[in-house]
Amino acid sequence: MAQDPNKPLSDIEIARQAKMQRIEAIAEKAGIPDEAFEPYGKHIAKIDLDKIPGLQDRPDGKLILVTAINPTPAGEGKTTTTVGLGDGLARIGKKTMICLREPSLGPCFGVKGGAAGGGYAQIVPMEQINLHFTGDFHAITSAHNLLSAMIDNHIYWGNSLGIDTRRVAWRRVLDMNDRSLRAINSSLGGVSNGFPREDGFDITVASEVMAVFCLAKDLADLEARLGKMIIGYTRDKKAITAADIKASSAMTVLLKDALKPNLVQTLEGNPAFVHGGPFANIAHGCNSVTATRAGLKLADYVVTEAGFGADLGAEKFFDIKCRKAGLTPAAVVIVATVRALKMHGGVPKDQLGKENLEALRKGLANLGRHVENVRKFGVSAIVGINHFIADTPAEHELIAQVCKEQFGVDAVVCSHWAEGSKGTEELARRVVALAEAPHPLDGRGFRTLYPDEMPLWDKMKMIAKEIYRASDIIADQKVRDQFKDIEAAGFGHLPICVAKTQYSFSTDPNHRGAPVDHVVPIREVRLSAGAGFLVVVCGEIMTMPGLPRVPSAEFIRLDTKGQIEGLF
Fold first, then answer.
1. DSSP per position, 541-561
2. Is the distance from CB of 50 to CB of 290 less than 8 angstroms?
3. Which of 18, 45, 72, 78 is catalytic?
4. Would you place residue 3 in the very low, low, confident or very high pLDDT band (cuts 50, 70, 90)?
5. Which one of 22, 43, 248, 383 has the fewest CB atoms closer than 10 angstroms to its CB?
6. Is 543 known to be catalytic?
7. Per-residue pLDDT tens over the stretch 510-547
């Protein structure tokens, strides 16, 4: 049933009206046998990939990445488009799997709200997915904090490893926005409580355990990566790892069941893996490798997304996830909306409902930059215009014209929010044409932006110049020395994971559009040895968000029927 534009239902109302199939039927559609199927109620299941005969010997399907322009308060609908495209591909007869990240509780109760798509392009059951789901995030939180407890316990019982308590790098985590925990003093209250020190909390999705979880290919790889995580240093700056603390095996036990991908369905009954959820600006912002690789073996087409705009999300998807997992994307969809493009063109949010072709043309520079960037990885792109009710035909025509004449790509208007798969049928056909083209974009095929052997500083400079169009990067001598020390310790081959604002190509969140010749300041670097990348922090980035003045939690409640209200 399509939306009536004059009487639109809310996302949660649409989700409640859906007639979900039992998850056994979804597993059967995906080709998952009973022995690999572990139900979590009627509509959710975990999948034991080791129990799918010959899975790893099957050929891979086509991998489609959905990314977007730089986000604005006007919204882009990247997840909604990912779900809509997956349904659209199924509609035209392609066996399809959608792969998404799990939502974090913090944003659900903060300002962002849920993350299960919208309108008639949703994954369900929406409430469970957005809340506790299968407990994966709780397992990751517990594993992380087990290591935290074992570090302080080791120090308490003699500190045989010689950990310098001033250089403990491992913080604690909580899957909630709570600014008061960003910086704390721990172990207060006397001798029996340990040695007082400065500590703090990050949100669970910023944990290196989350990044490790999403890049590990199996349990053995997970345990090995956990063991490599650096938790602190001795007085002579020797790194101490989780393996040194003897925590990695017990952490793996806590994560054993969580590592199995979660199977759910779209409103149209198509299968979706929703698994893992690292932060997109402090980590690589992609769903788990285990889910993506399983999807590629089970389906002809896998549709996945990367966090925030293409400058952060797509670049990390290519340079970190694809590099680490050996993935080759077949095509990219760049999501844009008329509203967001006008905002990049200088229109304030309260005036976005009015046609403004001049501002739209100006804002299209942001979209053009992302198209150019994606091509640098040797992947063909198409623009998906996520249709909003206030859009005008003239605005859609201008986007299509500029995309074709100036950017050299097609732009397709998508109405999946209101019409489901019918609204993405044309986009699906265009994506198939790109993905199945006999020759890659430039004859060279997919490639990462920089080689492993390039020095770390030069990798960061290349990202800044090629992706952000910066003139240079700067850092004080202490930070420059950290780059050299990390290379000297044997980590020079690692890719770069940039932590910066998602709202701009620059490090200034208010600098919208397509800025050039700005300078990217590097504030600090953090070695994520277990995940296998170097986090380069540019500008002010919070690893523990706070709640807004009026958090969404104030409006989330149970109605008289016991149903959840206000989650979307």
1. --SS----SS-GGGG-EE-TT
2. no
3. 78
4. low
5. 22
6. no
7. 999 999 999 999 999 999 999 999 999 998 888 899 99
